[in-house]
User: What shape does this take?
Amino acid sequence: MTEVCDYLQNVLNEEIPLTQALQVKVVSWQDKKLSLTLPLAPNINHMSSAFGGSLYCGAVLAGWGWMHLYLKELGITDGHIVIQEGQIVYPHPVLGDAIAICYPPDEKEWAKFEKVFKRHKKGRLALNTVIMYEGKEAVTFNGQFVVYCEH
Assistant: This one.
């Protein structure tokens, strides 16, 4: 697991430099669930809570990272992953370090994505991410990710 986390951390740092400023760290890839830490200090706002834009970025990064790792496990290494659309809700303030968790999609949705992707070399998939703070879902995010190959 540590090897996979180190691999994704390097990909994020190199491919998406913003992750370094946010100090996002990959902490686990287990049971098809990806977890990232999002520390408060580099993401703090004027109200001493986490900046909403940083939380949005953390949620998107968890989804992007999930898609990257899962495609890699399937042997798909030439796919470009982009966020197409995202809806976010902030029910609780984040007043300290938080964890962004991206859960795997429903198996039926994944099968549909895989079928379309294999046929057209592009596909779309909705992923759900939560940002946990003090045992609560402080943020919920649903993102529509698109994967495509140039060949």
